[in-house]
Amino acid sequence: MQPKPTTHQTAVRRGPPTEPLWVQRFLIGAAVLVLVVLIVVPVLNIFAYALQDGVAAYFKHLTGDPDTWHAIKLTLFVAPIAVVLNVLFGIAAAWLLTRFSFPGRTLLTSLIDLPFAVSPVVAGLMLVLLFGAKGWFGPYLQASNIKIIFATPGLVLATMFVTLPFVARELIPVMQAIGPDEELAAISLGANGWQMFWRVTLPNIKWGLLYGIILCNGRAMGEFGAVYVVSGHIAGQTDTMPLRVEKLFQDFNLPASFAVASLLTLLSLVTVALKVILENWKDENVSE
Amino acid sequence: MSIHIANVTKRFGEFVALDNVSLDVPSGDLLALLGPSGSGKTTLLRIIAGLEHADDGVVRYEGEDVTQKAPKDREVGFVFQHYALFRHMSVFENVAFGLRVRNAPKAEVNARVKELLHLVRLEGLGSRYPAQLSGGQRQRVALARALAVRPRMLLLDEPFGALDAKVRQELRQWLRQLHDEMHVTTVFVTHDQEEAFEVADHVVVMRAGKIEQAGSPQDVFDHPASPFVMDFLGQVNVFHGRLQAGQMHVGNIAVNYPEYTHAESRDATAYIRPHEVELDRLPIDGTSLPVKVLHVNPAGAVTRVKVLSEAFGWSLNVELRPERYAELALRPGDNVFAVPKRVRVFMSDDYAI
What we know:
The complex is a heterodimer. By secondary structure, chain A is mainly α. Chain A has one domain: MetI-like fold (Orthogonal Bundle), CATH 1.10.3720. Helices cover 76% and strands 0% of the residues of chain A. Chain A has helices spanning 21-50, 55-63, 66-99, 105-117, 120-131, 138-143, 152-163, 165-178, 181-188, 193-222, 225-231, 241-250, 254-286. In chain A, helix 7 runs antiparallel to helix 11, helix 8 runs antiparallel to helix 10 (193-222) and helix 9 packs antiparallel against helix 10 (193-222). Chain A starts with 20 loop residues before the first helix and ends with a helix. Chain B is α+β, with helices and mostly antiparallel strands. Chain B contains 9 helices and 20 strands. In chain B, the strands form 4 sheets. In chain B, strands 6-7-8-3-9-10 form a 6-stranded mixed β-sheet, sandwiched between helices. A 5-stranded antiparallel β-sheet of chain B has the order 13-12-11-14-20. In chain B, strands 15-19-16-17-18 form a 5-stranded antiparallel β-sheet. In chain B, a hairpin with a 5-residue loop joins strand 16 and strand 17. In chain B, helix 2 runs parallel beside helix 4 and helix 3 crosses helix 4. The longest helix of chain B is centred in the middle third of the chain and has 18 residues, at 165-182. Chains A and B meet through helix 9 and helix 10 of A and strand 6 and helix 2 of B.
């Protein structure tokens, strides 16, 4: 999935449509059908299943089971760390790629996209091969008593890898469009690097950055494949919410599984809602 | 503050933007770097500001070597071609930026910004954002912002390039006035010779990374050092001919060129400015060239006439004073005589077209 650049330049065609009525109806109908079948029904279904035993049972499924509760807390712990680290990486990468020209620049640009192309399971396996007991750094890590695979650091690494492109991909087109002149102006007026970044660069990229953070966070909380491989699936220790959903589902504990799934869905919906609010807010602010 | 540039060279990959350039800008001067695009004038300006690093050579301010100094420590006011105003800041904050990053006290910032907004005639627009300003207003904000920190010199990159003709004219005169009041050493880049001549004390004509000629506007215009300068400074008629024994022959016209005395003839090019040709109804002497009037354009401060020499197949652009045009009462198709009052000859090796 490729996130859209935040500089929206949607070409809106004004005036009444010129197509025959049946074409209009067919196209609208097809679009609505796809949306309903693929998105609306499944999402509603999750909530319907989750709430089938009532609200009390729903909350009991979420909070009553210590393993489930731990999974919720773990996801809410791992995702923000991954997001913060990716923000730092994303800003640095976008800066490097848009403000400097150097040999290998194109290669680096494609490398940032690599996590989009690589299957998350493969990403997880790569981490196991590096940091696992039999991996490259395995003996050293064991000797130093550092646990990465089957522990929280592994989860953070896996989540980071999968969500790596989000922030950088958002910022690169924004920073390219803005260009370096304002930053150079700040420098020529006597600003140092930090002053330039905080006073000029950051305010200019803030919308792109927030957009990237939101997308990155949504993806980080929902990540399954890579996390599945590195977590070892230890209930109450390394199970995140998506893993917990799957485990409960495999145990035929459907109401509990759907309860966790609904919470995860809710978090995604909040993310999407935040994004929409932000876009409206931004449009108002920009066109003041 | 004087600027001294010695043997500066700058390459971008294979492209040589500046080729061993040396230049002195006296303190308090208003100097124009004039040249076509790609001549290296903007690169030179950015090297003076420290926004670009020279591969070779030295930049000195008032004798002090600043080649390795960061732009933020150079105390230079730089106005960018497209102004580069901070789009998320109000006009007031834009002008205040340089003072804020120096942690100037609030009262001082307020006073100084007010003073500058007054200077650039933008009082009352302090709370506007750059997007809400016209091109000329943005330009003045950019100037105020650069001047707020009391720079030791002012550098402007194509300062009037993006403005329409009327605003441009006003701002030119205003910049000249401002400079006369403040006497801060100013260098600006332009590709418009009229602009350079009108505003600057000194003009430096650049071409392909080198300085072609430097001098006062009068100097450069009256004594162009090369065909390139001649060509670049306004419209010119070009004729190819032969040079031999101190004279250049173009058709039946002979022009003295005492620098070349060899008997062996060689190619040369003669340049005649349109306003340095006289037209008359009757031949004055042997150098008068019979021509036929093709077009007459009396609109503007001078009347432009295009004439054709049927004997040689040349066409010639002539500029007449309106009074002279009225006197002659020229019409297309009239047969008249053209007399070049001033011809500049360059040997063709100087300048390959």
